[in-house]
Amino acid sequence: MEQPLTDIGWFECKPDDPEIVRQRAYLEANNGIQGIEILTAGEIERAVNLFHRDGFVLVENILNDEQIDFLARGCNEVIRQIVALDETYAGNRGSHRYSFGGSSLTRSQLHRPEWQMLLELDPVHEFISAFFGSSHYTLRAASGDFCLPGAVDYQRLHSDTRDWIDGQQTPFSAFHDPLGKVSIRDLPAPYICVNFLPQAVTTLNGPTRQIPGTQKSRTPIPALSEEPEWMKLSTVCPAPAGSVMIRDVRAWHGGTPNLSNTTRAIPNLEFYAPWFQEPTVPGITYQDYKKLSPRAQELTRYSVADSSEALLTGPTLRAP
Ligand SMILES: [Fe+2]
How far is the CA of 19 from the centre of ligand 1 (A)? Predict the structure, then answer.
């Protein structure tokens, strides 16, 4: 079975530094949401309840051993390509942290067969259809992120969506209420992220922290300096390899330290609700698209290049 990488990370900090050793023991003892529920495929009703209550849900046994191995190999290959461009592990999500999409020339990994495989998982479609109340959703992104051992800092809590701002500043603010009364937070989830785990996520390898029930909150998101300790420990772990974490992207979340000796990857697919759309860029050639199942083709209909177009793919280091 392919294993996470152990020969990269820990740039300008040492795993046996006394402060790191102390923090590692603290996280081992305290990190993780107490009593977190882990569902299995087919537990749709419970998943719907948890998703709407908490803004996320964790489901195990979605990938089988063969799929875990295939995905882990793909992630490791991409990680090596990206890290080869970044000697000091400066990252593009903070030091030692990277976006799989932000580190790709196409802003996506959809050209890779490992991410295409993720489109074909029936249990995931059952959950997403139930959360949206419709199967007519579409792919937003095939991306995700990874962190290296030695990612010692917390990423600040944030939401992946925002209310409308000037289109000159970003194309990613498609919801505009000209009366200024309705926020994106008053609506159902505009898009949903599914993170797939090619390795276990533990108290020590950078589990995602999720603050339950914040997907509709209009409260300002606390900065790191203001964040209470319980939020820093509100992480989605432990979770076995082959699990998925399905997130309403509006819910407050952030990266946490990876004090282990291995890389931690959480490749993802992001799906737009049937009623929501932003500009998308092609991530898969027409020739590869034609090899997908009919349902995966429907999902990727806004992500496919024209049949006359080639895709230039490969690693790059772009700021988020
Ligand atoms: Fe995020």
Answer: 27
